[in-house]
Amino acid sequence: MWADPQFSNYIVKRTKYFDAACEDVTYNIDGKVDAMLNAGDIAENGLLCEYQYISEKLASARTKCFLNAVGNHDVRLKASYKKTVKNFTGFTNDLNKSVGSDFTMDAFHYSYEINGYRFIVLGTDRTEFEESYISEAQLCWLDAQLTEASKTGKPIFVMIHQPLKWTHGLPDTWGSPINSAGSVGAQSDSLKYFLNKYDNVFLITGHLHTGIGKYTYEKIGNFHSINLPSLTIDNKDGECNDNGIGFVMEVYDSHVLFRARNFAKGVYMPEYNIDIPVE
To answer: For residue 1, is it within any domain?
Structure first.
């Protein structure tokens, strides 16, 4: 599980961490993972040349599929929302094809089932600079997905780039006095309402570039929220602010284990693991 690689064709410092992390998931991970999740801001400017480089580096990753959420950096500099959707979905579909997956997406919001567990990915319905705009139609779609998935009694995983307002140290961790700063934006309360209706929902976000520590996990009402650190950008406000960090998630009948890993160094960091019981 990664967030905010923000690969750039001109910010050289990030490249070494990104390349090392890609080598780790290609050569060091034992066996094949069921999926690689990326919680957005995959490319700095959403350029085709950036996506091409990323695709080349991840083409042989030991994963069965890729589930990518779109981030604000992937969309914010584009004049045409339709073109942005085409570029991002095409990039994700090409990645999946490279590892032999038949999964395809044609919109920023979609769902996919892995071993009986529902993964729901949300994304902005229009071009925004920092936040996401989640339309009423997408919120209704989310509710329907959650209703269907909840019938299994299994954990449900929802991924969107930005966290909810007043969570994970916001707005202080965004460095702003504005209440909604750093969050998903105007639909934050609506998202919270729908997520809170169901049991064993896990919300996965990025965006804040906050290291692993007290702001990584919190229980929000009835659901769990995990905010991932940045893969390549200098993290802050955590106990572990290293570059190249993220998690490997393991899902069991009784609990969900988030194993902290430094992908740039190829080592687990068990002291930062997060183990959440399934109720």
So the answer is: no
pLDDT at site 77? 78
Q: Which of 205, 200, 207, 209 is nearest to 217 (CA)?
A: 205
Domain count, the chain: 1
pLDDT of residue 241: 98
Instruction: Provide the pLDDT for residue 38.
Output: 98
> Using one digit for the tens of pLDDT, what is the confidence trace for 215-236?
999 999 999 999 999 999 999 9
Domain that residue 70 falls in: 12-277
Residues of the chain with confidence (pLDDT) below 70:
78
Among candidates 39, 100, 9, which has minimal Cα distance to 246? 39
The DSSP-derived string for 187-247 is THHHHHHHHTTSSSEEEEE--S-B-BSTTTEEEETTEEEEEPPPSSSPPBSSSB--TTEEE
pTM: 0.96
Is 3 inside a domain boundary?
no
pLDDT at 263: 98
* Residue from 12, 4, 19, 34 nearest 248 by CA: 34
Distance CA 232, CA 247 (A): 14
pLDDT of residue 29: 82
Asked if residue 4 is part of any domain, the answer here is no
Tell me the C-alpha distance between 140 and 27, whole Å.
41
Longest dimension (CA), the chain: 47
Pairing outcome for strands 117-121 and 274-277: unpaired
